[in-house]
Amino acid sequence: MSDITQTKPFSLTDALDREALASAAPSQAELMQELRVRPKPGWTSRLPPSLAAFVTNPKGMAGVILLLALVLFSVLGPMMSDYNPNRRAGKPHVAPGYEHVLGTTRMGKDVFTQLAYGGRISLTVGFGAGIAAALIGLAIGISAGYFGGRVDDVLTFFVNVILVLPGLPLIIVIATLVEQASPLVIGVVLALTGWGWPARTIRTQTLTLRTREFVLSAELMGEKKWRIVLVEIFPNMLSFFMGGLVLGTIAAILAEAALEFIGLGDPNAVTWGTMLFWAQSNMALQSGAWWEIWPPAIAIMITGAALVLVNFGVDEITNPQLKAGRKISLIRKFLKRRGRSADVF
Fold it and tell me: Which of 75, 229, 291, 315 has the fewest beta carbons closer than 10 A?
């Protein structure tokens, strides 16, 4: 006798329940939108994974676009102007208009031309000092943390000396000795005094990495020291290197502008800092000539904001814990909106 399989009769209530569940379940597109997961463009598959992740990062790309806009303006801006930044181009304090896009200073100089030429020097000094300080800090920090022993003791001593050596007062002393500190002198002093904190941070991280399994495995396999440093340790220091680079560049640009604003720089050099110095000396705000002081101030603020956005983008890519924390917070909010428990996280 064959077994007769008994099936539960299908009711209209069950059909309605299934239909309701199906209609309540979100689609894949809705889930991706709520979790803020964006499909990656197809052309990014040809790029290296780290570069593809940075290109698809909104914060990082926004910072890069702003920086490129400033660099292009500084490079191509003078070509679009017929005026000399050091010579008179019109009447004093002419408001922005067709002939002078950003107006003129009290001395009759074109503000647009000065802003473009000043960007060349200010960005060069800032990026030069920031890159130099970050590279010095990276080399000294990794060397001290990885090799240890006497190398660590000697390099740590120099790091401590640099940390207690103030950069701005040193530039002030140099400016009083040479009468006028040029942008090159300011950049060199900032580069030589700004690598202390990056070096200490990278040294601390290197001390934790040199006992990891992948570093010990490379040493047991007989890999050379320089290869272990470049291939095994340096990629894990990218976020700290970018952090030091961004902070060093911002500090250099602000320090140069501050020193030139208080009159310790070369007043004949055309930079964003000297533009602020002459605007303050000529009482631009008191006379209502806002166009003389706001353009260089806004340029400095945009440069700092762009560098911070680039740092945020790099940190989100190279820091898995930060990236995972952001994803978990989005999943928590998603589950709470669905009335589900989020205690699993």
Answer: 75
